[in-house]
Design goal:
single chain; about 90 residues; two-stranded antiparallel sheet; about 20% strand; flat
């Protein structure tokens, strides 16, 4: 038994019937770093688009296979080639 008593008011049902997770996706207990992480990811994508002219897949298997953990990601990683944009001068 832990230090603090466990009650329904302290820990409401973890996953409602609709599959939403209000503890981290919204409400009073939303993840504090969520907006920062989304802003950083957006910035990185924009900088990549500015720096490189194109991106090509280098994955020999085209079918998506996921690895589900805390987040869903590609099971085989991301294999891409970035083609440098031509610069004037």
């Amino acid at each position: 038994m832990g230090v603090y008593p466990v009650s329904e008011t302290n820990f409401p049902q973890a996953t409602p019937a609709d599959g939403a997770n209000p503890r981290f996706n919204g409400g009073d207990r939303i993840c504090l770093g969520q907006q920062f992480a989304l802003t950083e990811a957006s910035y990185t994508i924009v900088r990549l688009m500015q720096e490189f002219a194109s991106m090509e897949s280098r994955d020999v298997e085209q079918e998506w296979k996921e690895q589900i953990a805390l987040v869903t990601k590609s099971r085989r990683g991301t294999k891409v080639a970035l083609m440098k944009a031509e610069t004037d001068g």
